[in-house]
Amino acid sequence: MCNLLSAGFVRLRKSLSFWIAMAVMSGVGVLEAALSRWAEQSSGNAVSLDMRYMIFALLAGIVLSGFCSLFVGAEYSSGTIRNKIAAGHTRTAVYLCNLILCAAAGVFLCIGYIVPFLAFGIPLLGFFETGLSIVLRCTLYAFLMTAALSSVFTMLSMLNQNRAATAVISISLAYFLLFLGIFLYSRLSEPEIIPAQEYIQDGQILLREAAPNPGYVQGIKRLIYQFLFRLPGPQAVRLAVMPAEPLRDLPLASVSVLLLSSGIGLFLFRKKDIK
After folding, report:
1. Could you give the 3-state DSSP secondary structure of residue 210?
2. How does DSSP classify residue 14?
């Protein structure tokens, strides 16, 4: 296992897809800092570092889905996985090695955004207004979320030898989870009561009384939405606003998805006919 990991990290360091993904994340980090400063100067409204910092959580899943498909798929197309098993390595070791490499790559990609963003963002926008403990906690939660997504994409890549098909499925899933998170955030953010409002009609000031909001999600439907909003992918939208509350349910959800997808993937991979 140690030999596989050592060789795997060498392969990761030499992987073109990894460096392309790092370039994308780093470029977005620099661009976000520059555009935030430009928007601040253009509109006259202050843009804080906090508002753009967690963008990497939204982007990481999409970039990672393409990377995992190409990185693991290259092992299939070159026959490396078959050769490793023929050389005496267990399927469990091969699977876990790729899982660890993809999870590590996911964290590196996040750091690839964070470092250039802070390097350019702090001089341009100033330091965090939110407490540093909240920033660190949300960053850690985002790392765990990325590891959970890596586990899902690794499972898809290890169970499908068609690299192109895996890439399409993984990237589509990443976008679906992101848009699902945006949808859930908008629905769960609806207020239960529409507050009273004054409005002018025919020159008269009228008062519309407070009333229940028909768009408010409640009951079993709300519980389902809240459960889905905890999953990796949708929770990126929740982390993007860097909320002050602890959000202890997010790391538990990420770890649960990581363990479940790893267990399913490993079980099916051990029975898979590798051509």
Report:
1. coil
2. H
